């Protein structure tokens, strides 16, 4: 379970202007991370300004969990909606019915991490294939 910027949404100014959409994704592996399933989008897009602003930038938090029950995965993740009445609107969610932990043929070969300019820290990375399920 991870937060990510969808491929193609990260441009030269979105990190500075806080216009990058943020999604929540899920991938799984059945061979210790040698290959991965396709991405499943669990939530999003979220607007960065919906998140708490800290001295390190906008933070969604790193509140992840993935419990296995009856052969299914139940991830828990945070989702933000537009603030209401001046208060943040963020809550923990999971998926109804669980998800299947499966393998796939996607590898991390050729992955890269995008470095954002100083002064525009973001709590997430734009690439998603290197993240493991927690």
Kindly describe this structure.
With 134 residues, the protein is an all-beta fold. The radius of gyration is 15 Å and the shape is globular. The protein contains one helix and eight strands; from the N terminus they run βαβββββββ. The strands form three sheets. The protein has a three-stranded antiparallel β-sheet, with no helix packed on it. It is 3% helix and 36% strand. The chain has one helix at 14-17, and strands spanning 2-4, 21-26, 40-47, 52-54, 57-59, 65-69, 72-84, 87-93.
Structural class: mainly beta
Following the backbone from N to C, one meets helices and strands in this order, namely EHEEEEEEE
> Based on DSSP secondary structure assignment, what is the total number of beta strands?
8
What would the average pLDDT be, to the nearest integer? Answer: 77
DSSP helix fraction: under 10%
What fraction of residues sit in β-strands? 35-45%
| Contiguous runs where pLDDT drops below 50 for at least 5 residues | 115-134
Give me the Rg, rounded. Answer: 15 Å
Largest sheet: 3 strands, antiparallel
How far the N terminus sits from the C terminus, by CA atoms, comes to: 7 Å
- The strands making up the biggest β-sheet line up spatially as 1-2-3
Our count of helices gives 1
**What is the general shape?**
globular
Gist of the model:
This protein has 134 residues and is mainly beta. It has one helix at 14-17, and strands spanning 2-4, 21-26, 40-47, 52-54, 57-59, 65-69, 72-84, 87-93. Helices cover 3% and strands 36% of the residues.
